[in-house]
């Protein structure tokens, strides 16, 4: 992704705090601490645009980042609040579920949802539930297995192949630490947004 400018545009803990949809959107979902924010920073080649954390459960709302690409196209990347964080109250979890559901159902510009899993843990119950729900909505899903750098090099390919077989759909390997998988995922996202890919040199 050839990013000319990327900036934070909104944090929303309620649906009506979100900016009106203006551009194609790609949302990023996954368990707390799986590496969503790091992945967005890595895709955009920005070190600290999206705050990352070693404390689970710290992204509380929906965060929207607006990206200007070389060539003039704009798109919004949306960091959804992480799920699966046990230390939250039931009421809090329900409020998030409602917010995420409303977002996923109501945004006309939403072109794809990136569901991020830890390559070492694979698909867990709440990831599978989310994917099922997205399928039901007819939303395009891209599964990304991140933290690839945490596996020894010799285990990466076989692990990804096993995940693909297990999940029954394509899985993009990724490392926010090394940038491994960045080009491939960027291309898939741009394609999902119908943004023309740059000409190869
Ligand atoms: N080694 C490694 N660590 C990562 C990677 N992605 C995220 N992390 C680390 O995992 C922790 C949680 O990342 P963060 O992006 O905040 O997760 P989020 O809660 O899903 O947004 C942080 O300590 C990150 O540095 C990765 O690809 N490789
Ligand atoms: Mg985060």
Named CATH topology: Rossmann fold
End-to-end distance: 15 Å
Q: What is the radius of gyration?
A: 16 Å
**How are helices and strands ordered from N to C?**
EEHEEHEHEHEH
Order of strands across the widest beta sheet? 1-3-4-2-5-6-7
Strand coverage percent: 15-25%
Mean pLDDT: 90
CATH homology superfamily name: P-loop containing nucleotide triphosphate hydrolases
Architecture in CATH? 3-Layer(aba) Sandwich
In this entry the ligands are: guanosine-5'-diphosphate, magnesium ion
Number of strands: 7
- Number of H- or I-type helical stretches: 5
Instruction: Provide the low-confidence segments as ranges.
Output: none
Q: Report the principal-axis shape.
A: globular
Any key phrases for this structure?
201 residues, 7-stranded mixed sheet, 5 helices, 7 strands, binds guanosine-5'-diphosphate, binds magnesium ion
Topology:
Layout lengths: L2 E10 L11 E7 L5 H9 L17 E8 L4 E6 L10 H17 L3 E9 L6 H13 L3 E6 L6 H15 L3 E3 L8 H11 L9
Task: Give structural notes.
It is a single chain. This protein is α/β, with parallel strands linked by helices. It has a seven-stranded mixed β-sheet with strand order 1-3-4-2-5-6-7, with helices on both faces. The longest helix has 17 residues. Bound molecules: guanosine-5'-diphosphate and magnesium ion (MG). The site of magnesium ion has 4 residues, from helix 1.
